[in-house]
Each structure stands twice: as C-alpha cells, then as structure tokens.
Amino acid sequence: MTAPRSRPDGLTILSLVLLAVVAVLLLVPLLGGPLPDPALIVVLLIARLLVQYLRARRDPGLKRPTAWALDLILIGLLLWTTANRP
After folding, report:
1. Mean pLDDT, rounded, of the chain
2. CA distances from 12 to 64, 72, 80, 84 (A)
3. Of 9, 23, 25, 84, which alpha carbon lies 20 to 30 A from 39's?
4. What does pTM read for this prediction?
5. Confidence at residue 23, expressed as pLDDT on a 0 to 100 scale
6. Please, is 48 exposed, middle or buried when counting C-beta atoms within 10 Å of its C-beta (0-12, 13-18, 19+)?
7. Which of 74, 11, 8, 12 is nearest to 41 (CA)?
C-alpha cells in the first residue's frame, strides 16, 4: 500500500509559478518574440525572493542562501544591463 502524497503548500506553488513565468519571458525572445521588459523580470525575481524568504521562515530546512544569492545576482545584472542601455 502506498502512502498518500502530500501536496505542496501555497508558497511553494507560488514560487514555482513565478519561476515558470520568468522562464517563459526569457524564452520568448529565443523563439522570435519581443524582448521582455527587464523591470518586469526584476519584479518577478524580487517577488520570488520574498516567497523563498517566507517559506524559510516557516521551515528552517528551506533556508537556501545560495539560491537567494543567485536571484540577487540576476537582479543586479538585469538592473546593470537596464542602466547601461543606450
């Protein structure tokens, strides 16, 4: 007999949805679509960072400073790219 599968909580689903939206926005230009607004991607990554922080407050086992650092690096690169646009 198999154990019942636990469903992910709302914050986990929200984090995955935010990540999927960022992935789609970054994939669209590769398929010939328009470039997304970097500010929109920054806002989505900041929202994902906040969701990750809230998840870590609920469950200390979810503290992943490396993932947070990666999001912060991406945000910084996007802001730097946007600031240096001609």
Report:
1. 87
2. 14, 19, 29, 34
3. 9
4. 0.79
5. 92
6. buried
7. 74
What's residue 31's pLDDT? 93
Percent of the chain with pLDDT over 70: 95
Q: Identify the three-state secondary structure at position 1.
A: coil
Q: CA torsion 54→58→63→64, rounded to 10°?
A: -50
The residue type of 80 is: W
3-state SS, 32-86, equals CCCCCCHHHHHHHHHHHHHHHHHHHHHCHHHCCHHHHHHHHHHHHHHHHHHHCCC
Assigned token pair, 16 = 């995955």
pLDDT digits (tens, 9 = 90+) for 30-59: 999 998 888 898 899 999 999 989 988 888
